[in-house]
Design a protein that fits this description.
The structure holds 2 protein chains of 2 kinds. Chain A is α+β, with helices and mostly antiparallel strands. Chain A folds into 2 domains: 3-36, no CATH class; 55-215, Immunoglobulin-like (Sandwich). In chain A, 16% of the residues lie in helices and 33% in strands. Chain A is built from 4 helices and 11 strands. Chain A has helices at 3-9, 11-14, 21-36, 118-124, and strands at residues 55-63, 74-79, 91-92, 95-97, 102-111, 116-117, 129-134, 144-148, 159-164, 172-181, 204-215. In chain A, β5 (102-111) and β6 form a beta hairpin. Chain A is elongated and about 100 Å long. The relative contact order of chain A is 0.16. Chain B starts with a helix and ends with a strand. Chain B has a 22-stranded antiparallel beta barrel. Chain B has a 5-stranded mixed sheet with strand order 8-13-14-11-12. Chain B folds into 2 domains: 2-115, Immunoglobulins (Immunoglobulin-like), CATH 2.60.40.10; 140-780, Beta Barrel (Maltoporin, Chain A), CATH 2.40.170. Chain B contains 7 helices and 41 strands. Chain B is mostly beta strands. Classes of the chains: A alpha+beta, B mainly beta. At the A-B interface, α3, α4 and β11 of A face α6, β22, β23, β24 and β25 of B. Chain A: This is Type 1 periplasmic binding fold superfamily protein.
Chain lengths: 216, 781
């Protein structure tokens, strides 16, 4: 198309008065007024907090000298039904153990809001998660000793062996259970379940609960 | 009478240009005692169209054969005129000549002249250079030309640090928000080509969704401009403006390439500007930029997961004739950025551990990978603007803006949740502005208008986290009027505005629907004046009231903030903040000296701030600090200074700095995150010879930032110590035919100093960025 043809098709170019400025201006306003009313926020949908941990259950299974289970499992739990909410504090049960006995400790982590077993997720991402066992029960001449005994062989702490001293110096202690996420498992010292400097290995805490412990 | 004679004698003597007149007056002076010859005509020449000053207009007094040329503020003075009647002619290329009859009797005659543009077949001269983006009597500073070129590759916040009184509130090296006189986020406003940018600005870690490359000038208005721009413009306004579209046949391309060693950053920007020769008055521009950077390096280690990936686009199409102007504009901003790994803490003891360590636990390594935690933000902005000249002095303006902001924030989470955003917000905003401007040949001009903002915010479901802020709909209606009186060197301006706002919100918390419906309304007003004491010296003063309704996060926040190991709780009973800002500025623009002094006083009642309650919240995750939103009466005050001096044609120096004080008057303590005293000075050596206008300059500069001694009563870590940084830059311009090539080499943090800045929220977790060597290339063809 040469420029003459172009001009014929667009009379505006030949005659500027045909460009009805006022009309264009009004059309622009009408267009905008229409779009303006066309936008509203969505109705909110309830969100289930998938990330929240509401229950942590410690299952103690007594083992005999050859490592076979003896008797029933005794469980102690910490729970916080609302997850993260201001005002509420978690309910933490006192862990009662017997002197000189060895237990298999299984930690169960749940989200009761979603009715979800988070333990499975932890096991799936075993390379990113690790439990640490701190508190007065594990220091000085410790009344408790812990070693990782996870089925996969990786150091996670979902399953472990906990031994109570025969003659503990004291009966009352506490056991702080910390679940680290996204840590560097190869950091020197990180393989120790009682690693005080766990923060140095990086990552963040997904759980940090202190259970009172009574040894009888 | 003797006194009068000597006066005449003195004034005529200094006027060496008119020796004939001098002798004449000397002779007459004795005979006609009443003749007074120390009268003068002062005036200001501005565009009728937009009130912008006209520089270099020619003024001629026919009878006296005296002339003058207007300065860059449009001012002119013709001195030593005797009483009588004179004919004045004012001429400026492309404008209708003005002829005015002036009767001088005593003192100084002052008048403002408005020149009307005439449609010329071909504009032979195009005026290049800086024009004020906003006509206001308040303090304004702008970044353009060479200074803007030097800032290329930096984000908006970092770029604006070059203006005294402006600092940043940042989260690491990739997120920075501009701070004007201690105010940021929702207390200042950012305008993207005339549309108020509506993103999720409430968040401390939410950077403005704008690409500085789209601008050819960034202007900072330091006064309260609520009347002109609407609520929230209480601390100031940042105008990010592209160059006006061409109205005649032209074709220009500009390419920017920026590379930086720290973070191995690469940035490219391409702009094409064209004017149609088929349709007169039709012009267009298309611009796009892309940026990629990896983990930045602090002295001694890499900051893990601090990469940035950005892709931006803007385009506009405009048509203008003598009666009508139409412009369509679209901009897209898209960014994905990593958040320093170790800043994502699980609980308070994690936070305390890293604060004690002072830096990330791992040394990190270089990588371009962006993993969780990260942010992904897309911002679309479209506007349609039109003006129509109803008559010679009345203009009708209409502007419509549409924005969609999509913000996703990803946390470190378990399993499939890691792929899902834990904050996913969609914000739609419509803005309509309808206003009339009137400009007359007399002293008055003004704007009256109506402004509508409608907003809809929705949480995209499926995050697996109770939303931090609810879904909401907001409507704001504003009515305003402003008038300006100009007479010669004096300009006085006043305006009023009324706003009404309704916010309705809805959100589920623990399966329970919670809704709210809130109304806010307010009047605001301002009064300002500007006086050209002499052609070199200007004083302006502006007092403006402003208000800001509480933001949705301040009203309804409820949730965990991983970066601060804090639970933040909103308060739905918060009232609107009301502020009064009085700002004064003195500007001197001499031959060798340039000086700018700004002082301000800004009391705010019901200032909203996040206050630590001192309580901790205990959960299975550990403990967290609890913060709540409170209101108090605040007083902000301070001053900025900027000056430069040319010692010789080769050597020049500059100095700028700012001091802000922000007190909680109820508690008699200080607010957190207010910039510390800072100063910046430098020396330049110009290699260019004589009249050569091409840049060829080396600059050594030194930034000094004091320790923030005005600390709040509670902070999770004390303010970091003072620091000094040295920077060096070399800029050279080459002319290749008709093309221009600008080269810049910069070294920032020359001595690789380890430092922390009080205004960087990541001072809790890491030292700031180390040395960075940047190469900046700009080619215009």
């Amino acid at each position: 198309m040469n420029s003459d043809q172009f001009k014929k098709q667009l009379p505006i170019l030949n005659n500027p008065t045909m460009f009805n400025s006022r009309k264009i201006f009004l059309y622009a306003i009408l267009f905008a007024a229409f779009t303006f009313t066309a936008c509203e926020s969505d109705d909110p949908e309830p969100e289930n907090d998938g990330e929240v941990i509401t229950d942590v259950i410690l299952n103690f299974q007594e083992l005999d000298a050859s490592g076979n289970p003896v008797g029933a499992v005794s469980s102690f739990s910490a729970s916080d039904p609302q997850g993260i909410e201001v005002g509420a504090t978690p309910t933490i049960e006192t862990v009662e153990l017997t002197k000189g006995k060895t237990y298999q400790l299984n930690i169960e982590v749940r989200n009761s809001i979603e009715n979800e077993d988070i333990t499975e997720e932890i096991l799936e991402e075993a390379d990113e998660h690790q439990f640490y066992f701190l508190g007065t029960a594990f220091v000085g001449s410790p009344i408790l000793t812990y070693q990782y005994d996870d089925l996969s062989g990786e150091l996670i702490g979902v399953q472990g062996i906990l031994t109570v001293q025969q003659n503990p110096g004291f009966n009352n202690a506490n056991m702080q259970i910390i679940l680290r996420h996204d840590l560097d498992k190869n950091y020197p010292g990180a393989s120790n379940p009682n690693f005080q400097e766990y923060a140095m290995a990086g990552g963040e805490s997904d759980l940090d609960i202190t259970f009172p412990v009574v040894v009888e | 009478m003797l006194v009068n004679n000597s006066n005449v004698y003195y004034f005529c003597i200094v006027n060496l240009k008119t020796p004939i007149l001098l002798t004449l007056i000397l002779l007459l002076g004795h005979k006609i005692q009443a003749q007074n010859c120390n009268l003068s005509i002062r005036g200001k020449i501005i565009h009728l169209e937009n009130n912008e000053p006209i520089e270099a207009a020619y003024v001629w007094v026919i009878e006296a054969e005296e002339g003058a040329v207007s300065d860059k503020n449009g001012n002119f003075t013709i001195k030593n005129l005797c009483s009588g009647t004179y004919t004045l002619t004012i001429q400026y290329l492309g404008h209708k000549e003005i002829r005015d009859t002036v009767t001088l009797e005593s003192g100084t005659f002052t008048k403002t002249y408005r020149l009307e543009e005439v449609a010329l077949g071909l504009k032979s001269v195009e005026v290049h250079g800086h024009r004020d983006a906003v006509q206001t009597t308040t303090a304004v500073s702008a970044l353009y030309g060479e200074k803007l070129l030097e800032s290329r590759g930096e984000n908006l916040g970092e770029s604006l640090k070059r203006i005294s009184g402006v600092s940043t509130f940042s989260t690491g090296n990739s997120i920075s928000k501009p701070v004007i006189h201690g105010m940021h986020s929702n207390r200042i406003m950012i305008m993207n080509n005339g549309i108020r940018l509506e993103g999720q600005q409430w968040g401390a870690e939410h950077a403005p969704e704008i690409d500085p490359f789209l601008a050819d000038e960034i202007t900072v208005v330091k006064g309260a401009e609520t009347v002109r721009y609407g609520p929230e413009a209480m601390g100031g306004v940042i105008l990010v403006n592209p160059a006006p579209l061409p109205t005649k046949k032209t074709s220009k391309t500009s390419l920017n390439l920026v590379g930086g060693t720290n973070g191995q950053m690469g940035n490219i920007n391409l702009v094409y500007v064209g004017g149609s020769h088929k349709i007169k008055g039709l012009g267009y521009r298309i611009q796009s930029s892309a940026k990629r950077s990896g983990n930045v390096k602090s002295p001694g280690y890499f900051q893990d997961n601090t990469g940035v990936s950005e892709l931006n686009l803007s385009s506009s199409l405009g048509y203008s004739s003598s009666k009508l102007g139409v412009e369509a504009y679209y901009s897209l901003f898209h960014t994905e950025l990593g958040i320093l790994n170790d800043s994502h803490t699980g609980n308070l003891s994690d936070l305390e551990n890293i604060i004690e360590n002072g830096r990330p636990f791992a040394d990190g390594e270089f990588s371009y990978e962006i993993a969780n935690p990260k942010q992904r933000v897309t911002h679309h902005l479209a506007k349609l603007k039109s003006h129509y000249h109803i008559s010679e002095s009345w203009k009708l303006n209409f502007q419509y803006g549409f924005q969609l902001n999509h913000r996703q924030e990803f946390d470190k989470r378990r399993g499939d949740l890691n792929e899902k955003a834990s904050l996913d917000l969609e914000l739609f905003t419509n803005t309509i502005d309808l206003y009339v401007n009137h400009t007359h040949k007399n002293e008055l001009s003004g704007t009256w208008g109506i402004n509508l903002i409608q907003q809809a915010n929705s949480n995209v479901p499926g995050t697996g986290v109770t939303p931090l802020i609810p879904n909401y709909d907001m409507v704001n209606t504003g009515l305003y009027a402003m008038e300006k009186y100009s007479k010669g060197p004096l300009e006085v301006e006043a305006g009023v505005r009324y706003d009404f706002r309704n916010v309705s919100t809805a959100r589920y918390i623990n399966q329970e629907l919670r809704t709210a419906d809130l109304d806010y309304q307010n009047f605001s007003a301002f009064l300002g004046g500007l006086y050209h004491i002499s052609p070199d010296l200007t004083f302006n003063s502006n007092i403006g009231s402003a208000w800001r309704p509480p933001n949705v996060n301040e009203l309804f926040s409820e949730g965990l903030h991983h970066g601060a190991a804090a639970v933040e709780i909103g308060n739905s009973d918060l009232k609107s903040e009301k502020s009064l800002k009085w700002i004064n500025e003195l500007q001197y623009d001499g031959k060798r000296t340039h000086l700018e002094l700004t002082a301000y006083l800004n009391p705010i009642s019901d200032y909203i701030f996040l206050n630590p309650t001192g309580e901790v919240f205990v959960s299975l995750r550990g403990t967290f600090n609890v913060y709540e939103y409170l209101q108090a009466n605040a007083l902000f005050y301070g001053f900025d200074f900027a000056g430069s001096y040319e010692f010789t044609d080769k050597i020049s120096a500059y100095l700028k700095g700012s001091i802000v004080q922000a007190k909680n008057r109820d508690e008699d303590n200080y607010f957190p995150f207010i910039p510390a005293n800072r100063m910046d000075w430098g020396v330049s050596y110009d290699f260019a010879k004589g009249t050569d206008s091409r840049t060829n300059k080396i600059t050594l500069s030194n930034v000094l930032v004091a320790k923030q001694n005005r600390e709040p009563d509670f902070d999770i870590a004390p303010a970091p110590p003072a620091y000094a940084l040295f920077n060096i830059s070399y800029n050279k311009q080459l002319i290749i035919g008709d093309d221009k090539l600008n080269l810049g080499l910069q070294v920032q943090n020359l001595f690789n100093t380890s430092y922390k800045d009080y205004m960087n929220r990541f001072r809790y977790f890491s030292y700031d960025m180390g040395r960075n060597v940047l190469l900046k290339i700009n080619y215009e063809f």
